[in-house]
Amino acid sequence: MPTRSIHANYTYLSACFPRTVRTIRDVLLPMLLVQVFLYFFSFVAAASPDLEVYKKMNCSSGGIYPTPTYGVEDGVFTVCATITIKGTTLQVYNAVIDFKDYYKWNQFVYAASVPAGVQTPSGVKPGLPVLFNSTGVPPGTNASSTDIVTYIEPPYLAAWKNVELEQFVGHSEHVQVFVSLRPGLVQYVNYQTQYGANAQNILYLEPDFQHQFELQARDLKAYVERQ
To answer: Does the structure show a pLDDT above 90 at 77?
Structure first.
């Protein structure tokens, strides 16, 4: 049996069902195209946070700070530390993203490792798992966790999330922002927001997190400025 062309089928349907075809062509098809556009626009917007919003973070406002993945919804607490560092945004950014060198300067997260073959910082991409070893939360204890890199925008923004023990402590996202104040001077903002009802279980640790985040900021400043 011969196969009709698309054009022939359209002509046949238009002749037999003119009103239905016009409705599909003039009403339903445009609506469908709009929905497809909005879907992809929302996906791109969610995957591309507004850098200008993050550049305004300075730890002075308090409250819940947004993260690229979760925003502010269901946020329980945020810890935030900021410091000015002499150097370029790229120098400060690279020091934070070069995980293999954390042992050289970071008293809070004293070691970090990525899968074999990843050349940091250039090899750090969204989806990359990073094993962090930390100390001091609570004081006198060590911990390890595997975070997943969620957003990288060199040399301005980096973020990673943790969902390992969500049923006990909720989930979190750690954001690092690098803002050039003037040539040779960078504002570094380092914060983490903890989300979900189960984050209430570790709310008592907020002061310990805050202390260690401030320690990490001071360590980073000393490390970059002595390079």
So the answer is: yes
| Crossing angle of the two packed helices 89-97 and 206-225, in degrees rounded to 10 | 120
125 touches 138 (CB < 8 A): no
C-alpha to C-alpha distance for 182 and 86, rounded to whole angstroms: 10
- Residue 115, classified by CB atoms within 10 Å of its CB into exposed (0-12), middle (13-18) or buried (19+), is exposed
For residues 83 and 220, is the Cβ–Cβ distance under 8 A?
Answer: yes
- The H or E element spanning position 21 is helix 18-23
Higher per-residue pLDDT: 22 or 3: 22
Tell whether the model's pLDDT for residue 60 goes beyond 70. yes
Could you give the CA distance from residue 86 to residue 120 in angstroms, rounded to a whole number? 22
- DSSP-derived letter for residue 83 is E
Q: What's the pLDDT score for residue 6?
A: 53
Q: Is the dihedral of CA 153, 154, 157, 160 positive or negative?
A: positive
Residue given tokens 């990359």 in the structure block:
128
Q: Which amino acid is at 199?
A: A
Three-state SS letters, 10-63: HHHHHHHCHHHHHHHHHHHHHHHHHHHHHHHHHHHHHHCCCHHHHHCCCCCCCC
Q: Is the pLDDT of residue 187 over 80?
A: yes
Query: Cα Rg for the chain, rounded, in angstroms?
Result: 24
Q: Among 13-17, 44-48, 79-83, 91-95, whose mean pLDDT is lowest?
A: 44-48
- Nearest CA to 151 out of 82, 78, 51 is that of 51
Q: How far apart are CA 118 and CA 125, in angstroms?
A: 10
Name the DSSP letter for residue 65: P
Which one, of 115, 109, 120, 151, lies nearest residue 130 by Cα?
Answer: 115
